[in-house]
Write a structure and sequence with these properties.
Elements (H helix, E strand, L loop, with lengths): L1 H9 L8 H9 L1 H24 L9 H13 L3 H22 L10 E4 L10 H4 L1 E8 L12 E10 L15 H8 L4 E9 L4 E3 L3 E4 L11 E3 H7 L5 H18 L14 E4 L12 E4 L20 H15 L22 H13 L4 H12 L14 H42 L1
Helix pairs in contact: 2-3, 5-13, 9-10, 9-13, 10-11, 10-12, 11-12, 12-13
């Protein structure tokens, strides 16, 4: 072994191979983990620079131009990815709505986790879409506000095999899945095969529960109630929540997924078994009926081009300040009789935006993008069904949020490593 290492050292050219540093890398696991972590961080930064950088027009180096073209051709287009996610999410909703039509006296309510809308780095044409959700068991629920919830997962993926002709292998109603886990501490899984024109739901499979929620009790809060009752969380948690809201809007808004409910009154959180709301997983409620399909009713006096993106901008302000937008209303924002109008919260949002400038630049940029729509061309409509809107939303709203989140996570990781090093040194004394 010693001879092999000496031979390795002697093969170096250029004089300085830092042999002892390399030996330390192999000798100590602590050093390996630290250096591999640093290497991963700088690789991520390098990829970001290569992906988003553009060559100077005066550059004549054909090798650099070829490298740029290669990187651009292999990178996943966020706008195209978002479009595939929207298509698959719409098909998933439509397929589940067919299974949701049962003979129960009270319809099953479903609450779908928006925490799953974080897949813009994946290719949905191969990976598909997956949602965690909770379904209310109307048989077990009590006549008062107490409800029983069952945990479930549903996924949809492009089919790689023919449609099964045996009807016993397909799910008919959601009740079949609920009955499998009723009275048991288990969850169920649904899988949908997407054949483009036809979607087929396999019979459910059972699995262990992953979300440690209170299964019985009215153990959930709207985001409006969370803002009122819960202490302001860390900046990292608030930025993560804001990023989840933004990604889920890009994936689900202006689709069958309850567009009219996209506000703090209808976005909910469930209590964990420790009695605290799970802020990592906001949920959107649906019963798969006509009310779930309603879009936003837009007041013609509204001075914004897309009410959904406006709602997101207001949500981002509420998440950052951890107070409802109504808290900042002034008499000049209201009608003469003191009642709010269609534009009341827009005036408040722009005023709050001015106060946020310079505090957290990436977050400010995202709110600015939601309120001002800087990518919008004069006279053009703003709809997430359009590629230009998705592309602008991704660049102007999502990317700044993600950049701020990555910086804060790196800072927290460094602080944790420093704390561990301090404790370790103290332990040897």
């Amino acid at each position: 072994m010693c001879a092999s290492m000496l031979e390795f050292r002697n093969t170096g050219t250029g004089g300085q191979w830092h042999f002892h540093e390399r030996r330390k890398f192999f000798q100590k696991e602590e050093n390996r983990k630290k250096w591999v972590s640093q290497l991963a961080k700088w690789n991520k930064r390098l990829k970001r620079i290569v992906k988003h950088g553009k060559l100077d027009g005066a550059t004549t180096d054909e090798a650099e131009r070829a490298l740029c073209r290669s990187n651009q051709s292999t990178a996943i287009d966020p706008s195209n990815t978002a479009n595939h996610l929207r298509i698959l999410s719409r098909r998933l909703f439509t397929t589940l709505s067919g299974c949701w039509q049962c003979q129960c006296t009270k319809p099953h309510e479903g609450r779908f986790s928006l925490g799953n809308c974080n897949m813009l780095g994946s290719d949905p044409t191969t990976c598909g879409v997956q949602f965690q959700f909770l379904v209310c068991d109307s048989i077990q629920s009590q006549p008062d506000s107490t409800m029983s919830w069952h945990e479930a997962t549903v996924s949809i993926m492009p089919a790689y095999r023919p449609i099964c002709s045996d009807p016993t292998e397909n799910l008919k109603t959601i009740c079949e899945a609920v009955r499998m886990v009723r009275g048991r501490d288990l969850a169920f899984q649904l899988h949908i095969w997407d054949h483009d024109d036809v979607q087929v739901v396999e019979r459910p499979k059972v699995c262990s529960r992953l979300l440690k929620y209170q299964q019985v009790l009215p153990g959930r809060l709207s985001f409006k109630e969370v803002l009122r009752t819960e202490k302001k969380p860390s900046l990292a948690m608030r930025i993560k929540l804001a990023s989840t809201f933004a990604r889920s809007l890009l994936q689900l808004y202006e689709s069958p997924w309850s567009s009219s409910r996209w506000d703090k009154d209808h976005l909910t959180f469930f209590f964990t078994e420790y009695g605290k709301p799970d802020l990592d997983r906001p949920y959107l409620s649906t019963t798969f009926d006509k009310s779930s399909l309603q879009g936003d009713v837009v007041d013609p006096s509204l001075v914004h081009s897309n009410i959904g993106i406006l709602k997101l901008g207001i949500l981002l302000i509420e998440v950052y300040k951890w107070k409802p937008i109504e808290h900042y209303r002034q008499p000049g924002d209201m009608n003469q009789d003191g009642t709010p109008n269609a534009n009341t919260d827009i005036w408040v949002a722009f005023r709050m935006l001015d106060k946020m400038e310079g505090s957290l630049q990436g977050y400010f940029d995202s709110v600015f993008g939601c309120l001002n729509l800087p990518w919008k061309q004069p006279g053009a409509r703003v709809s997430l069904e359009d590629e230009s809107t998705r592309d602008g939303f991704y660049r102007v709203v999502l990317q700044p949020l993600q950049g701020e989140l990555e910086k804060i996570e790196e800072d927290e990781k460094r602080r944790e490593e420093k704390l561990r090093d301090t404790k370790r040194r103290g332990g040897y004394r």
